[in-house]
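agent> Task received from the user: take the single chain below, predict its 3D structure, and emit structure tokens. No templates, no multimer pairing.
agent> Plan: (1) validate residues, (2) run structure prediction, (3) serialize to tokens, (4) report one or two observations.
agent> Step 1 OK, no nonstandard residues flagged.
tool_call: predict_structure(input=
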Amino acid sequence: MTREKVDAGPVIYLASRSPRRVALLKQIGLTCETLPADIDETQLVDETPVTYVMRVAQQKAEACLQALTPEQRVYPILAADTTVVLDGIVLGKPVDDDDACSILSALSGNVHQVHTAVALAFNNEIEVVLSTTVVEMMALSKAQIEAYIATGEHRDKAGSYGIQGAAGAWIKRIEGSYTGVMGLPLYETAALLRKHGVSTC
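)
tool_result: status=success, residues=201
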């Protein structure tokens, strides 16, 4: 486990290795200790995107919970999963640069949805909440896509782009949570934590 330190605030376990999620938690005053949950994230047959992302977030929290001792379980465990959906099809993280090119070409000039589910395991219960954001991306040229892929920014990102990076200039509009598109919707996350007695900013 890797402890990510901030000056103050309660400690939680984060079932993720995402530096973006760590940074977002710091933004609302939370210290987290990362404990990545390595689970099978394969979408099940006939599983809807929403059911899929909520199931994976819950399973990440459950896997993290099982890895902790009873003494460690006094702290809350937070997990999240993000998926990009175009025309009902889940577009996951790219397997390579060619796959990223195909994904970005599909998103180009279209409207897609970003679902981020957040799961909290605390006090012998697990609750999952969902944030859905509609995103409209401008039409991209082949040269733009290739130049972006050359930066490496697309790697390990659902939908092959990060709205907080250079690709943010491609986003014409969003309806929903900007931080949800980044991977951790802060409003929903903070509300969930407060509901279970964990203070935030």
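agent> Step 4: summary for the user.
The chain has one domain: 2-195.
agent> Done.
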